[in-house]
Amino acid sequence: MTDASPRPEPSAHSPVRIAIVDDDVESRQLWAEWINHTPGLACISQSSNAQEAEANLLRDRPHIVLMDINLPGPSGIDCVRDIKQRAPEIQFVMLTVYCDADHVFEALTAGASGYLLKRTSRATLLEALREVHSGGSPMSSTVARQVVQYFQQSTAKVSAPDPLSDREREILQLLALGRQNKEIMRELGIRPSTVATHIRRIYGKLHVHSRAAAVGKFVMMNGSH
Fold it and tell me: Which of 76, 115, 80, 109 is CA-nearest to residue 94?
């Protein structure tokens, strides 16, 4: 059940509120320092495990959470799945050492909006936070390459009916790569309203409400191997 408490929305003068969940103290402090020294961003909490994160996130209602996967106790993916059910407005970006397909697609299906590797540079991490806040789905290049390879390989699979048209599959692949609507419009040579219509149809056919969830759902339908 969704928690009734509203998320604080940023005003023109308030920063994007970010929380960090990772059991490595030094990593948390480094990322918090990067965030707090960046105009428009603020780290409002740090947690070391899923139980602590649940209490902090439901209390503080950050806009974005940087979430590790390998936590003591329940995993970061389990934490994302639980929190998204209770506070669906919170956006999660996985920040992890795992780059295998199973972890990537499980995280996306759980509700993560982005997936970055811990070796991500400071500039890339900060840009990814801005991107996810504006509706994007940032992914490290290694992760994005796996998504592309999956889409290329899945064309030959028949393990499940595919409700999407060829154009919708093409747009879904671009969404998985973090493309914004304007970029899709330019890349495919179609109108903004056409892009929006296709995305609405994709969401409707897959019964999801975000681009990351659409990618994860499509992958689960067709199998990740």
Answer: 115
Q: Which residues pair with 218 in a beta bridge?
A: none
Asked whether the whole model's pTM tops 0.85, one would answer no
Asked, for residue 2, whether it belongs to a domain, the answer is no
Report the amino acid identity of residue 215: V
List, edge to edge, every strand of the sheet that includes 91-96: 41-47, 16-21, 64-67, 91-96, 114-117
Q: What's the angle, vertex CA 88, arms to CA 84 and CA 89, rounded to 5?
A: 135
Are 169 and 124 members of one domain?
no
Is the pLDDT reported for residue 223 higher than 60?
no
Tokens 């503080």 belong to residue: 60
Residues found in the chain: 225
Domain of 132 in residue numbering reads as 16-143
pLDDT digits (tens, 9 = 90+) for 175-186: 877 777 888 999
Q: How far, in Å, are 13, 127, 140, 149 from residue 40 at the CA level?
A: 8, 12, 23, 35
